[in-house]
Task: inverse folding
């Protein structure tokens, strides 16, 4: 498959850097001077760093490309160990799983904001967060995001013959590959049959709903926490909490949000 060198190698370089940056982050977390103001919050940031390395691993194993043509938006497998006509169904499932990591990143950021909210408004419940039931709830909430996103890809955005015929000429011209020989998920929101258009719009609107819900929670919880910061008398706690976030978390938030924006499903609408 013909793709530009930047599209092939730059994501791989970025993924490899994750395995340099995150161990350093983990070291800083584990060696940070223990205090009552930070407490077990360090382990939530450690969870974030481990997830980022897992995300990078999946990106390296399932490198994706995006293409828009006519009324179709396509996310395809560009190369890698799953690439090939003989593994096309497995590759399509791998694409769905890889896409699900977008929503997993939403989930882990929501968990971060919820923790901050509990820490400031209901501190007596903090001890419950890292007990077995609390950890079970965190992981369940986290995994549901990825399962739902991947499920939407599998149920509504799978590649069928109509979709392959629609993009066939374009992919032969631009990439030198037959659309029947590659794995992809796609949405055709016009120019297709009623059933295919309905599937495309259902998938697009469902994924958009997840994104809107996540961003809305970020804004709502973030504003509430900011109000407490501006009016609370516990300045020492808030300064320490904010300083730790600035050193440990915000660079990772920026990296994850940038990655997700580049994979936005609605970039062609």
Result:
């Amino acid at each position: 498959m013909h793709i530009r060198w930047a599209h092939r190698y730059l994501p791989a370089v970025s993924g490899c850097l994750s395995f340099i940056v995150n161990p350093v982050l983990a070291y800083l977390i584990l060696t940070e001077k223990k205090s009552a103001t930070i407490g077990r919050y360090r382990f939530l940031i450690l969870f974030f760093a481990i997830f980022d390395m897992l995300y990078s691993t999946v990106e390296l194993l399932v490198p994706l490309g995006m293409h828009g043509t006519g009324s179709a938006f396509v996310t395809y497998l560009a190369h890698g160990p799953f690439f090939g006509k003989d593994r096309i169904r497995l590759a399509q499932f791998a694409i769905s799983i890889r896409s699900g990591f977008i929503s997993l990143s939403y989930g882990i950021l929501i968990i971060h904001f919820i923790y901050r909210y509990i820490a400031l408004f209901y501190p007596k419940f903090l001890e419950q967060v890292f007990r077995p039931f609390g950890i079970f709830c965190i992981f369940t909430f986290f995994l549901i995001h990825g399962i739902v996103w991947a499920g939407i890809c599998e149920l509504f955005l799978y590649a069928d013959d109509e979709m392959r015929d629609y993009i066939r000429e374009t992919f032969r011209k631009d990439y030198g590959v037959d659309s029947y020989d590659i794995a992809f998920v796609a949405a055709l929101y016009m120019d297709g049959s009623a059933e295919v258009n309905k599937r495309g719009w259902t998938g697009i609107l469902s994924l958009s709903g997840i994104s809107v819900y996540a961003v809305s929670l970020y804004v709502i919880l973030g504003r509430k926490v900011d109000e407490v910061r501006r009016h609370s008398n516990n300045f020492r706690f808030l300064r320490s909490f904010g300083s730790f976030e600035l050193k440990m978390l915000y660079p990772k938030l920026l990296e994850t949000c940038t990655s997700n924006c580049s994979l936005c499903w609605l970039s062609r609408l």
Notes: The chain is about 70% helix and 5% strand. Residues 5-262 form a domain with the Rhopdopsin 7-helix transmembrane proteins fold (CATH 1.20.1070). The first strand starts at residue 64 and ends at 69. The chain has one domain: 5-262.
